[in-house]
From TrEMBL:
Keywords: Calcium, Disulfide bond, Endoplasmic reticulum, Glycoprotein, Isomerase, Metal-binding, Repeat, Rotamase, Signal. GO terms for molecular function: calcium ion binding; peptidyl-prolyl cis-trans isomerase activity. One of its GO terms (cellular component) is endoplasmic reticulum. This is peptidylprolyl isomerase. Residues 57-147 form the PPIase FKBP-type domain. PANTHER family: PEPTIDYL-PROLYL CIS-TRANS ISOMERASE FKBP14, PEPTIDYL-PROLYL CIS-TRANS ISOMERASE FKBP7/14. InterPro entries: EF-hand-dom_pair (IPR011992), EF_Hand_1_Ca_BS (IPR018247), EF_hand_dom (IPR002048), PPIase_dom_sf (IPR046357), PPIase_FKBP (IPR052273), PPIase_FKBP_dom (IPR001179). Its EC number is 5.2.1.8.
Length: 223
């Protein structure tokens, strides 16, 4: 949770400043535990011409370097640790860090950004590999290419009725029924069920009974 508190004080008499200080002290005690370090986005370079900006569901090709804020040490670089190859990922489906999903929207090809990501939007209390728990991370990210994702994030959100980032068979069935009705098609429940089963056979890659945001939006063989 991110909380911004502003206190406006009228200094009509001598007692007001002291009262304001007391309110600030009380507010800090109440709000302080809720406040987290914010995600910081710095644009290092932006091209003069920008024909398209990234949106959720887009596939992004990036080079990046990752550093620990505490000592400046590098923990990963696509230039050094990925055979020099950039990396594809899909924006907005938690395929990467939450800080990336939030910090790389509206980005242009050729743009370079520096993200300072707090632990809550990175690896949190657990850490991962070379990254200690509660680590703030810094990334320098260059965007090389944008491609349309095979499915849009907006469509997924429309289908995901309970906002749990996965689609149940019932949610898919409800969505399909609305689409058929929109186009004047008449399909009975048996046909609906058969269609839903066919969709899950093809899309539910891990066979857990749900279609995740990643399964819906992105397929490896479509790169």
């Amino acid at each position: 949770m991110y909380v911004l508190v502003e206190i406006h004080v009228r200094e009509d008499d001598g007692a007001r400043p002291a009262k304001a200080e007391r309110w600030q002290e009380l507010t800090a005690q109440i709000v302080g535990p809720l406040v987290q370090d914010p995600l910081h986005v710095e644009v290092l370079h932006k091209p003069f011409l920008c024909h398209r900006k990234t949106k959720w569901g887009d596939m992004m090709l990036v080079h990046y370097e990752g550093f620990l804020e505490r000592d400046g040490s590098m923990f990963h670089s696509t230039h050094k640790h990925n055979n020099g190859q950039p990396m594809w990922f899909t924006l907005g489906i938690r395929e990467a860090l939450k800080g990336w999903d939030r910090g790389l929207k509206d980005m242009c090809v050729g743009e370079k950004r520096k993200l300072t990501i707090p632990p809550a939007l990175a690896y949190g209390k657990e850490g991962k590999g070379k990254i200690p728990p509660e680590s703030t991370l810094i990334f320098n990210i260059d965007l090389l290419e944008i491609r349309n994702g095979p499915r849009s994030h907006e469509s997924f959100q429309e289908m995901d009725l309970n906002d749990d980032w996965k689609l149940s068979k019932q949610e898919v069935k409800i969505y399909l029924k609305k689409e058929f009705e929109k186009h004047g098609a008449v399909v009975n429940d048996t046909q609906h069920d058969a269609l839903v089963e066919d969709i899950f056979d093809k899309e539910d890659e891990d066979s857990d009974g749900f279609i995740s945001a990643r399964e819906f939006t992105y397929k490896h063989d479509e790169l």
